[in-house]
């Protein structure tokens, strides 16, 4: 069982694992072993609560496809098992982030003092710019 939060768990067979060859440096070893991991998870057919499914599908994340699948590829380590753990951790963080509801922002008014300071700064700035203006002289 994969524990997302205290009350949400997923069965191991809901995740599909695929091991592929990693790109990048590694010498001759990189051409022989499949150390990179690709985790695949179908949101619609999963046992997640409806709220989690809806939030995952609405989430703007490059790891979620148009067809409603989560694809996470990991090739950070040269070890297949470490890559598997990293991908699983990323998946858990992604799903768990859908469980938090952000606080609503309350609009506030600026204080009287801050309004007065702002107006004073505007007057001072205007006076500074007024001194830069070219005054018409007797030759103009």
Automatic annotation (TrEMBL):
Basic residues compositional bias, start-end: 119-140
Any idea of its EC number? 3.1.1.29
Keyword check for Hydrolase, yes or no: yes
Report keywords, A-Z.
Answer: Hydrolase
Q: Which GO terms describe its molecular function?
A: peptidyl-tRNA hydrolase activity
Q: Name one Pfam family in it.
A: RF-1
Q: Where is the Prokaryotic-type class I peptide chain release factors domain?
A: 21-37
Q: Looking at the record's lineage, which domain of life comes first?
A: Bacteria
Q: Which InterPro entries does the entry link to?
A: Pep_chain_release_fac_I, Pep_chain_release_fac_I_sf
Q: Where is this region: Disordered?
A: 103-140
The residues the entry assigns to the signal sequence are: none
By sequence similarity, the record places it as follows: Belongs to the prokaryotic/mitochondrial release factor family.
Protein name according to UniProt: Alternative ribosome rescue aminoacyl-tRNA hydrolase ArfB
Organism per entry:
Alkalimonas collagenimarina
- The encoding gene is arfB
């Amino acid at each position: 069982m994969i524990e997302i939060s205290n009350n949400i768990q997923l069965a191991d067979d809901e995740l599909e694992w695929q091991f592929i060859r990693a790109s990048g440096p590694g010498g001759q070893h990189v051409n022989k072993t499949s150390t990179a991991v690709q985790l695949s998870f179908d949101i619609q057919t999963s046992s997640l609560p409806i709220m989690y499914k809806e939030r995952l599908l609405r989430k703007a994340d490059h790891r979620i496809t148009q067809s409603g699948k989560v694809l996470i590829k990991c090739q950070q380590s040269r070890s297949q098992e470490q890559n598997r753990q990293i991908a699983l951790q990323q998946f858990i963080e992604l799903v768990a982030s859908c469980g938090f509801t952000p606080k609503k922002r309350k609009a506030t008014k600026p204080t009287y003092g801050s309004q007065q300071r702002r107006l004073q700064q505007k007057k001072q700035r205007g006076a500074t710019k007024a001194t830069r203006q070219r005054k018409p002289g007797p030759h103009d």
